[in-house]
Amino acid sequence: MVATWHRSTWACWMCMFINGLVAGATSAPIIIDTDMNVDDMAALVYLVRSGADIKGITVSATGFSGQWAGVDSALRLLHKLNRSDIPVAFQEGYLGSTRLNLDYPSGMPPSEWTEANNRYLEQWIGLEPSQKPAAWQSAPQLICQILQSADLQSVFILELGPYTNLAAALHRSDCAALFRSKVQGLYVQGGRLHGDDAQKIQQSGALRGSGPGSGFPWTTEKKPNKASWNVFLDAVSAAQVWTFGLATVVLSDNAFEHLQVDPSDPGMYTPRNCTNKLLADVMLNWAPAHNAEWSGLSYWDQATAVVMMQQLLTKESACQRWVESNITISLQNDATYATYHEGSLGAPSEACLATSRVALLNDFYSAGCA
Ligand SMILES: *[C@@H]1O[C@H](CO)[C@@H](O)[C@H](O)[C@H]1NC(C)=O
Ligand SMILES: *[C@@H]1O[C@H](CO)[C@@H](O)[C@H](O)[C@H]1NC(C)=O
Ligand SMILES: *[C@@H]1O[C@H](CO)[C@@H](O)[C@H](O)[C@H]1NC(C)=O
Fold this sequence. Notes:
There is one protein chain. By secondary structure, the protein is an alpha/beta fold. The protein has one domain: Alpha-Beta Complex (Inosine-uridine Nucleoside N-ribohydrolase, Chain A), CATH 3.90.245. Helices cover 39% and strands 15% of the residues. The chain is built from 16 helices and nine strands. The chain has a nine-stranded mixed beta sheet, sandwiched between helices. Helix 2 links the parallel strand 1 (29-34) and strand 2 (53-59). The structure holds 2-acetamido-2-deoxy-beta-D-glucopyranose (3 copies).
C-alpha cells in the first residue's frame, strides 16, 4: 500500500511538473458553485485562463444574480473563452432560502441589487449569448455525477456563492458517500473569524463595507454584521455543509483587507506582451455598471480562486498568514446568527488571514499569459 501510494504520488508530481513546463499547468478536477456576481465572473475567466480543469459549474439562484441570468452569464463567458464543453447547471427547484430566523430575514437579495449583474455581460462587455443550452441535470445531480466518475480523493470544490447547491447534493441518495470518498477539499470565499488572532489582524486595518454609502448600495442592517453574505443567504445549507466536515480552505474577510479594486490595476499588473482584454473589461466596468465606488469593491472571489489555483499547481501562495480552526455555523437566534463558530466540531479548516496584494494581482492579471 505504502509503496503504491508513493509511486502514484511521485508519478503525479512528475506529470504536474512536466505539464507545468511544456503545456501550461492543468489543475486537479474542480467543481465551481457560484452565484455569478461580477467577482465570480472575473474569477471564472481567471480560472479558465490559468488551466483549471473545470468539470462543471453550478449556479445558485439564492445569491447575487437572478435565476434566469446566472446560468446565462456563465454560458456566455464560456462561449467567449471557447469552453462551451463545460456543463452549467441551474439550481434545483427554486427558492432554497433559509427562513429559520425572522429577525434576520434572508432569502434572495432584492432584485434592484441583482439587476446590474443580470445584464452585465450583455450590456457592458458586449458578449454574445451562447448557443449551448444549460445542462439537463440540476445542480446537485450534476455535482453527484461528476463525483461518481472522479478518482478517489481527487476533486476540489470552489464555493463562491450561497451553499444551497452543495447542501442539496449532500442530501441526494448516496451522494454524501461520494463527497467523503471523492472530494479532497473545499475552498470557500468570505466570512469573518473572531478568534484572538483574527481580531488582532482585523484591528490593524479599518473595517469597511459595513454600511450604506461605502460602495455598493448594500446594507448590513438586515443581517448580523459579522455574517458573511454567502452564509447568511442560506444559513441552513451553509450550516449543513460545514457540519459535514470537508477539509476546507477559507479566504476569510480578514484576507481582503488590502484587496480593494483600483481601476489602474489591469494596466499595472497585466504583462505588456499579454492580451487579457476580457478579464480587464470584466474588472473595469464593475463600478460604473453598478453605480458604485471602486473603494467598495474587493477581489473577493478572484482572490479565493487565485489562492486555490496556487495550491493546486503547487505554486507559492499569495496568502501570507494561515490559521487552523474547526468551524461550524451559528444558527442561534441572536446577533451571532449565520456567523462562523470556532470550536472542536465542524470542518477542519485552514483560514487565510492576510494576503499579499502584489503577489495576488500579479498572478490574477497574468493568467494565461505565460
Ligand atoms: C476551441 O476549442 C476546440 C476544442 O475544444 C479547438 O479545437 C479549437 O481550435 C478552439 N478554437 C479556438 C479559436 O481556440
Ligand atoms: C512576455 O514577456 C515575458 C518577460 O519578458 C516572457 O517571459 C514571456 O515569455 C512573454 N510572453 C509572451 C506570450 O510573449
Ligand atoms: C479540530 O478538531 C480535531 C478533532 O476534534 C482536533 O484534533 C484538532 O485539534 C482541532 N483543531 C483545532 C485547531 O482546534
